[in-house]
Structures are given as C-alpha cells and as structure tokens.
Backbone:
C-alpha cells in the first residue's frame, strides 16, 4: 500500500508533517521518494500515450481530408453527367468523412487540455521530488552528525578510553623505572680525567663571573 493514492495526494502532501509523524524518518523519506519517482514515470508515460494518440488522430484527419476531396470530385463528375442522385450520394459520403474529421479534432482539443494538465502535474511532482531529496540529504547529514557525537561520547567516557589511559600510565611508570635505573647506575662511579678537568673549568668560570659581579656592585674582592 503506497503512502499516497497518487498524483493529487503527492502534490498536496506536506513532506515535513509526514516525517514528523514517522517512527523512522529515514525509511519514510526513502518510501516517499520512491513513490514520487514511480508516479512521475507513470504521469510521463501517460502523457507520451496522449501525444501518440494525437499524432494518430492527425494522420486520420489528413486521410479524411483526402477522402472528402475525392468525394467532392466524384459528386462534381456525377453532376456533370446529369446524375444528380449519384452526386447527392457522393456528397453524403463526403459529409460523413467531414463529421468524423470534426469529431477527431474535438478529441485532439480534449487531449490538449489533458496534456496541459499533465505538464503542470509533472512540474509540481518534480518540485515535490526535489523537496523530498533535499530533506533526505538533510536527514542523512543530521544522522551522521548524531552518530559522530555518540562515538565521541563513547570515546571520552567509555571503558576503552579508561583502559587506554591506564596502559599509558603503566608505560610512563616503566619509563620512570628505566630512567631511575640509569641514574642509579651512575652513582658512586669514579670520575674520568676529562670529567674532573671539565668541573675545574666550570668552577673557574663561576669564580670569574662572581668576581665581575662584585666589581660592578663595588664589593671588596676576597
């Protein structure tokens, strides 16, 4: 069972209201678009049949005009031979062809009105379809955004995040321990000759800087 009973219902439909009342808006909008597309195909197919019927009728009218001309010639010939009875019969046949041609012309006019209505319906259906597709795009974007927010919340507050931070803290403790072992390994070690000379040079530099500072401040040198 479709959502709409067809063209008129689709044109009059309020897509927003339908989605607001739906338990599953994403599913509803897909159904709406599918039915609109199917209806649009049907309306266009119907219009195509009307156009084909009109073309056939116009061909029949052209043939009937040829028939009328033929009966007119025959009536003239019969009258020229003083066969008024035959001329009258020929004119009767010509009138039949003319009446049928007029009926076909009337039908073409009615079909023209139907085509104009179909053209308007097609334009309105296309507008509704564009609206529905725009709503579908909007719904998809909102759904994706909601899913992303959910994943972020789970990431920040979930057990997996807590576990990850716990592992990180364990790694930090391991690094601290490794650094502590390296520092402890250097305790009590005998200094090399280069290390002792470097310390002397550093001490001399500090003494020189201290003497310069005292001089600037006017303090007596020891």
Residues:
């Amino acid at each position: 069972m479709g959502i709409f009973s067809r063209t008129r219902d689709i044109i009059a439909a309020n897509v927003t209201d339908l989605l607001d009342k739906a338990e599953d808006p994403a599913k509803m909008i897909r159904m709406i678009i599918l039915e609109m597309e199917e209806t649009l195909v049907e309306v266009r197919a119907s219009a195509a049949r009307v156009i084909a019927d009109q073309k056939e009728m116009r061909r029949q009218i052209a043939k009937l005009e040829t028939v009328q001309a033929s009966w007119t010639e025959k009536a003239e010939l019969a009258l020229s031979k003083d066969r008024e009875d035959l001329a009258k019969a020929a004119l009767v046949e010509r009138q039949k062809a003319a009446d049928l041609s007029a009926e076909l012309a009337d039908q073409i006019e009615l079909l023209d009105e139907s085509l104009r209505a179909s053209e308007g319906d097609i334009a309105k259906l296309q507008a509704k379809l564009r609206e529905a597709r725009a709503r579908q795009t909007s719904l998809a974007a909102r759904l994706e955004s909601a899913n992303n927010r959910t994943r972020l919340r789970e990431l920040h507050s979930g057990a997996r995040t807590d576990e990850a931070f716990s592992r990180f803290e364990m790694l930090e403790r391991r690094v601290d321990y490794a650094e502590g072992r390296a520092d402890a390994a250097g305790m009590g070690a005998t200094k090399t000759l280069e290390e002792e000379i470097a310390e002397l040079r550093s001490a001399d530099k500090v003494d020189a800087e201290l003497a310069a500072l005292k001089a600037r401040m006017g303090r007596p040198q020891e």
About this structure: The mean pLDDT is 82. Residues 194-222 form one domain. The chain has six helices and no strands.
